[in-house]
Amino acid sequence: MTVHWLGYTDNIGSVTTIHAAVSRTGNSVQWLTDMTNLRKAAADAESAVIFLKSGIGYDVYDLCRDLSFTFPQVVVILLIPAEELNYKKAMHAGAVDAVGLPGAETEIVQAARDAEQSLRAKMARLTGESSREQKADGRVLTVYGTKGGVGKTTLAVNLAVALSKSGLRVAVLDLDLQFGDVAIFFDVQPKRTIYEWVKEGQDQSAGEIDRYMIHHSSGVEILPAPLRPEFAEVIGGEHVGLVIGQLKRAYDYVIVDTPPSLVEASLVALENSQDILMVTAMDLPTLKNSKLGIETLESLGMKDRMKVVLNRDTKVEGIHLDMVENIIGMPIFARIPSEGKVVVSSVNRGVPFVLSNPREAVTRSIFSIASKLQSDLRRIPNVPKQIPQHSLRKPLFRSIFKR
Ligand SMILES: Nc1ncnc2c1ncn2[C@@H]1O[C@H](COP(=O)(O)OP(=O)(O)O)[C@@H](O)[C@H]1O
Ligand SMILES: [Mg+2]
């Protein structure tokens, strides 16, 4: 596949540093100042990364939207003065990245590399789409944690976007049925949720689930939690099993977000998962709860599919990493740094930080989890692991379900 590097600006003199930065990646951008020529170059390219610089007399977001929807084989990087850059608008316009000018050289180089990777993934997806019918079931990953506020939803949402950037079809299922906030993290307003899917008969024929999914501009699709906490009552474990079954037939990855308590819905999700990410943090109450959570899942025969993610990783007086591993009795699979400013403002704006802050350490940690999971995937075949049925019938565990 040949990748063309195109650029559009109303002032060639203003893009020399960008041109120089991109050439460090071994690519040369062909800059155009005429829209007709740009469109022609985009149409002729087998695939292309297009830099669009804002300028006078045109709306760069509109232009981005137009190009990215007209030409499926291109990705667009926006170049906009930092003080004017609106990431949310950029994302809704379909941009793969946006750089605030004057950007540092490393930032432009990174944006160019990321964009090329996204483009290759997109092209692979486009060419693979026709053979989708024969695809195997997708993988199910449940984000679990025994405490509220530990970062489960943050991880579920951002990991979903990171996986979708690598060309996978990703769904997020919000099983925090009473107080789920996945829709808020994505700033989408659900009309239908898992509750409607259950109420409207949840016909199990293939494709039915499509009508209930909310599409996010990142490519991730969401099945939100019910709009009211009391609606959660009608959703039983059997519904959760059915909905996961439908989702994994339609998506490459199903990411399940869960509440802090081990309710039946979560247990069904855990049973159906190939991967369980147990989110923990560096404080003793959380570590103690995580240890109990791990022991519970161990007694249910699920320990081998569990991976521990240490969130808000920061230097804490009196607690070290090896102490954490000793307390919980498992190795740490991945660490996510504590970056309050980035993470909290991303939630408040409703833009996952892997989109709004592509180069922060916290974003890199999420991409690293995504790639570790995928490299595991290449080693482990996608066979659902059987749990000994007797373990699920233990009265002790049935009695802790709250429904
Ligand atoms: N790595 C992090 N650094 C800083 N703040 C974080 C981090 N992870 C999560 N948070 C913040 O913690 C709060 C709780 O996170 P959330 O994902 O909703 O937790 P949970 O789903 O486990 O209840 C949110 O305000 C979120 O922005
Ligand atoms: Mg949550």
Would you write up a description of this structure?
With 403 residues, this protein is an alpha/beta fold. It has 2 domains: 3-130, Rossmann fold (3-Layer(aba) Sandwich); 135-399, P-loop containing nucleotide triphosphate hydrolases (Rossmann fold), CATH 3.40.50.300. Helices cover 42% and strands 18% of the residues. It is built from 17 helices and 13 strands. The strands form 2 sheets. An 8-stranded mixed β-sheet has the order 8-9-7-10-6-11-12-13, with helices on both faces. Strands 2-1-3-4-5 form a 5-stranded parallel β-sheet, with helices on both faces. Strand 3 (47-53), helix 3 (60-70) and strand 4 form a beta-alpha-beta unit. Helix 9 runs parallel beside helix 10. The longest helix is centred in the N-terminal third of the chain and has 24 residues, at 105-128. It is globular and about 65 Å long. Mean pLDDT is 89; it is low at 383-403. The structure holds adenosine-5'-diphosphate and magnesium ion. Magnesium ion binds next to helix 6.
